Every structure is written in C-alpha cells, then in structure tokens.
Amino acid sequence: MNSTPSYLIQAKAQLGNFLKLAAQFVKRNRKALYITAALVFVILLILFSLRGVFLRSVVDQVKEKFAMRFHGYLQIEQAEFSGLRTISFQKVSIGDSNCTDTLFTAKKLEVTIGWRSILTLNPSFSDLNGYHIHLNLVRADSSSNYLFLLKPRAITLKDTTSADPVDYATQVRRLFTLLFEVIPSHCNLFDLRLKANIDNNRFEINAAEYTIRNGGFINNISVITHDTTRIWTIEGMVNRSEQKGDFKIYGKEPLLVPWLDGRFTARVMFDTLQFSMEEGNAADTSFKLISKAGVSGLVISQPLISNRQVKFKELKGELDLIISPSQLEVDSTSYALINGLQVNPYIRFIPIKPYKINLEIHKREFPAQQLFDALPVGLFSNLEGMQVEGNLSYNLSFNLDMNNPDSLIFESDLKGNRFKIKKYGAVPLTLINSPFMHTVYEYGRPVRTFLVGEGNPGYLPLNQISPYLQSAIMTSEDGAFYYHGGFLPDAFREAMITNIKEKRFARGGSTISMQLVKNVFLSRNKTVTRKLEEALIVWLIERQRLSSKARMYEVYLNIIEMAPMTYGVQEGARFYFAKDASRLNLSESILLASLVPHPKWFKYSFNADGRPKEWLNDYYHLMVEKMVSKGFITENDALSVTTDFKISGPALKFLSPADSIAADSLKIDLLKPNLTPEN
C-alpha cells in the first residue's frame, strides 16, 4: 500500500514538468545563450582591463571633491589594483592648504573590497593593510592643521531649497551601519603613530603593529605624556554581520588619559575601561542603540570638581537610546550604577527648536546607607564616613518647553522612612549649635576667621537684633523660612524660568537654610557638585531637626557678608550707620536687606552724599507691601518708611559721584529678590 501523501505526489509531478520545459527552452535557445554568455564575458574582460583607468578617474574625482569641500588637499602618488579586489595606494597624505604641518601620511595602504561593496557600491573593506601611518595634530591658538575638516561645507542651492525635516533615526542608522562596514574583518597596520601638540599640550601614541583577525583583536600601544610612558592593551571583537562591538582597555598599572590635563587641568586615571554597543529591537521608524560601559579604579583630579582626588570604586551603566525621526529618548531600562547605587533615568529630548526636554527619576525605597556609601571619596567631604539607618526614596520630574518656559515643571522630593543618623561624617552637622570658628573663603582662599558665638564681641543673639532687620532680611531672602523644610521648590522653579528667559544666571532660588549651609560647611569647596552636597546637608539638618530654626537664623545673621570684609549684621550696621544692629529702624533695615545679595556692590546703591539712589524707591515699595501682607509690620510702620536719609558710617568714604557703572544691572536684580508667593 502506497503511504506517500497526495500533495507530495503532485509536487513531484509539477517539478518534473518544470524541468522538462527548462530543458526544451535551453535546447531551442542554446545558440542565443552562448552568444549572451560570450558578450557578458567580453564586457567583463573589457571592464577588468580598464579598471586601472576607472580607478585613477575615481581617485582624481575624490581628490577634487576633497579640495572643494575642505579647502585642503588629499594626495595619492599612485593608485593601482594589485589583485582581483585589492587596491594599493602609495604615499597618501592629507593636510590643510594653509598650513605647513601635514595632518596625515601613509607610505602604503592596501584595501580589499568586499563582494557586497562591489554589488551595492558601498564602502566595505574585508581587509586593510597599512605601513608607516602617521597622524600629526598641531594647534596654536586659532591656527591648526586639523580644524579645516570641521568647517561646514559651502551651502548650495539644493541645501537652501530643501524643506524636508531631519530624520534622526534614518541618519543614525546609516552612520551605525557605515561604521561597521568600514571596519575591516582583517587588518594589519605597521608603524602606527599619533603625535599631538595642542596649545603646547603634547602627547604621543605609538603601535609597532596593530592587527585585527576575523573581527577580534588584542593589541598593545604606548601612550607618552609628560615624559611618562604607559602601555595600554586594547582588546575586543567587532561582529560586522550582527553589527555588534565590544572593547576593553587596560594596563599593568593605572592608565593616564592624555590631553585632559593640559586642556582642562584634569588628571584622569583608570585601571580598566569596557564599552560595547549594538542595535536593539525598535519600531520600523526608530533606531535603538544599546551601549554598555564600565570603568574601574577611576581617579579624577580637577579643581572645579573637587580640591581633592575623587575616587570611584565602581562606575558602570547601560544606555538604551531610542532615536525616532524627531526625538531622542533614553529609556528607563537604562541605568547608572555608582558605587553600588543604581539609578534609572528617563530622558526625552526634541532637538528641533524650540527644544523640549523631559527628565524623570523615580527611585523606590532603598536602604539609606546605600546613598552615603555611593558618594565618591573626595567629592562630598563633609559626609564621608556617615552611617545611617532606615530607608530613602527619591522622585524627580523636570519638563521644559523652550517655547513656553513658564510651563516648566520641577518637582524634587527625597523622603526618609525610619531614617536616623547613627554617626556623623568628617564634620558634625550639629556644629552650629555651639560656638565655632568660621573661616571665610574667597576664590578658594581663606580671607578671615572669626568666632561665631558669645565669645565674640561682635556677635549678637537673635533677641538683640532689631526685629525690623530680622523681618526685612527674611522677607527679601526667604519669607517662609520658619515654615518650610529647607527648600522652596516653587522659588527654585521661578528662578530657573527667569534664568532661562534671560539666558544668564539672573536669579537664585536658595533659602536661608541653603545659604547658611553653603557659608558654614561648603565655603572651601566651590565646585560643580557643591549644590548637591548643599542640598543633602540641608535635608539632613532640617528633616532630622539637628538645629532649631531660631538658632539657624541667628547664626545666619551673624555671618552673612554685608560689605567687603564685613560679616554679620552688627558689623554691617556699624559700617553703614555707625550704630548697633539692635537700634536700626525700619528704613535702615530695608536698606541693609537690599545689600545682602550684592554686598561687594554696595557703593552703587548710594549717591556720593550717602543717600540711597532714587531707583531704590521701587524696592522699598515692594518690600513694605510684602512685610505688611505677612504681618511683619503694621500699616503705621509702613507710613514711616522713607529713603530720605544718609548713611553715616565708614562706608561713606568709599562713595564717589562716578559710582553708577553697575547701577542699572543691580537695580534689575534687586527688583527680583526671592519674593515668591511663599515669601
């Protein structure tokens, strides 16, 4: 019994019929097929014999286009085929026509073109051999031998008439594909050298041989900087078909990154650096780039970051970047792991003007000690070694539409659950509760040290400071000081909106708590991370109630700068009015409050005879209105306010009729004090 399915029998019959028809066609058209094959062979033979002519023509066109686009030169002494798919270039050089220092030279380059490249006309090299390849970077001030490559090409009519929007996904996909197509599967480079002299910042990178085998490589290069040589090992794998790359850099001793020290006064060293990238799954109209990076033994020395070495035990992360035709999005699957603390940010950015950006960080409850253990050594000096218990959680929402800055959303909230400090770090945060020595720093240098406490004759307890002065400074700087937890999110939001609109730092959102912490704990460390440490210390003092509000305000009033080398309201009252701060009236108090944001500019607030300048009338009017509304003063008190008075203290001798240079900008800033709705 035949068990073969009927559909297989039918398929075999149809295949047999097709083969019979094909054989009959070849038999009937054999002569035509032979002629066609012969013609194809002749054409290929002609093309093969003329390939040298075509190559020289293409090289001439490339050289001409290079000269037109970059106003530089590309010279190739000889170009010829040395095999079926291999092209040899002799004595190649690239440089700026206006510079005597040649940028790139190669004695010989051999490239083997992939079959796919021949069929698709895309630049794809299966093999690359190079001999005596030298790259020389030179720059002195505005003159260089490489910046000509970064200059934009001339705009053509086609450029100006094109109104098509930029498709970022398509562009990145093309670049990503091109990157893997131009990286050869096999590579042999001999005598590879990079020399740089950029504004007298010199370094050199050399490799006697650099090889790639089937996409894999492990090579040693020598990096010379400041007469110090380090051997770097570069290891990795490039999978061209899957478009994936893995890279690793390490050495037997810590590796020093060149150029950064001379350019940014930054000394950056690491033990091992790893990096990988590949394309992820995304919608047809989008491109997803997945990249992972990690560095161990990272040490950074840079004055603007910290006045000490900053050390990271562990720093790694993953970036899942989704690029659509019109926006960039960092997916929340991305993460940054800093010394064991993981953060998953979400970022959405629309790079078309007017720009839009959205940032979200939501960190669910985690052991609080993780945060303090994650702080890099040398970056948050006051908190190093702090031990805590309990849990923390954090939420941040930031949304900015540059077309409508007033719609800005800023919400930042750190919460503690059963949080408690077990041990303080390098500096006890209860420092301000007792007399302490306070050092004032300017530009990182100590300028004055004095006792903050009853042992100082110039120190005034809060109950001996004029109530008018207390309420005036509080109204100007932080009207809700006694009621908030150290932060005024709305004030900070309004400050950001103002700064964005004016494209400069025109307004701050600091509370009195933040100013106090900055002056007492952070005056030595004016760095880019100071604001983060300031916020964390404020949160600890306020939420843990390490000091009373009254004590904080008392210390604040006794250390704030009132004029150059004049600190505290007692010294300020004597400097301007030759009287104690306990005896200041309302008009005098409002004047001193106006000087707190700009104490070094005090002379621009006065006429030569010591009278307040007329434009201060607007500031007085605003302050009186706020002080009445908050109940700090009565309507009768308001009627007594005047600017028709003179200062009588030592400040008089610093005044002159010419003190009006900065008055206009000072007036603008004074009329934008921290007078938020909370104030």
Protein model, in words:
By secondary structure, the protein is an alpha+beta fold. The chain has a domain of 244 residues: Orthogonal Bundle (Penicillin binding protein transpeptidase fold). 31% of the residues lie in helices and 34% in strands. The chain is built from 17 helices and 24 strands. Helix 8 packs parallel to helix 14, helix 10 packs across helix 11 and helix 10 packs across helix 12. The termini are far apart.
Please outline what is shown here.
The protein is an alpha+beta fold and 679 residues long.
Strand-helix topology:
Elements (H helix, E strand, L loop, with lengths): L5 H23 L1 H41 L1 E10 L4 E11 L7 E10 L1 H6 L4 E16 L2 E2 L12 H5 L6 H15 L3 E13 L2 E12 L3 E10 L2 E12 L4 E13 L3 H5 L2 E14 L6 E15 L8 E14 L4 E3 L4 E4 L2 E3 L1 E6 L5 E12 H7 L12 E15 L7 E15 L12 E7 L2 E8 L14 H11 L11 H14 L9 H10 L8 H14 L5 H11 L1 E3 L2 E2 L1 H9 L8 H10 L20 H14 L5 H5 L23 H8 L9
Parallel strand pairs: 4-6
Antiparallel strand pairs: 1-2, 2-3, 3-4, 4-5, 6-7, 7-8, 8-9, 9-10, 10-11, 11-12, 12-13, 13-14, 13-15, 14-17, 15-16, 17-18, 18-19, 19-20, 21-22, 23-24
Features of this protein?
679 residues; alpha+beta; Penicillin binding protein transpeptidase fold; 20-stranded mixed beta sheet; two-stranded antiparallel sheet
Low-confidence parts lasting 5 or more residues at pLDDT below 50?
154-162, 675-679
**Structural classification:** alpha+beta
- Total DSSP E strands: 24
CATH homologous superfamily identity of the domain at 427-670: Biosynthetic peptidoglycan transglycosylase-like
Radius of gyration: 36 Å
Question: Largest beta sheet, briefly?
Answer: 20 strands, mixed
Total of helices? 17
Separation, N- and C-terminal Cα atoms: 99 Å
Average pLDDT level = 86
- Here the CATH topology of the domain at 427-670 equals Penicillin binding protein transpeptidase fold
Instruction: Give the % helix.
Output: 25-40%
CATH domain class name of the domain at 427-670 = Mainly Alpha
Architecture per CATH nomenclature, i.e. the level-2 architecture of the domain at 427-670: Orthogonal Bundle
Question: Which strand-content bin applies to the residues?
Answer: 25-35%
Q: Please tell me what the overall shape is.
A: elongated
